[in-house]
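Predict the 3D structure for this chain.
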Amino acid sequence: MRCAQLISERVHRIVDPADATLRLLAFDPVASASTLAPRLRRMPVLARLLEQNPLLSAVYVG
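Done. Predicted structure below.
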């Protein structure tokens, strides 16, 4: 049982930051942008998210 708890905690440490990022992006203007210009203006935010979480390799919005 201890092994299962340890695995669960480790999985949460990996998944929780990505989940929080997705929840924030849902309210970011990039999620509702319909043209390229406003999407490009949000690029620094997306780059920063990737820099802050080395487990993320990409961010897709669509």
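The helical segments are 2-25, 36-41, 43-52.
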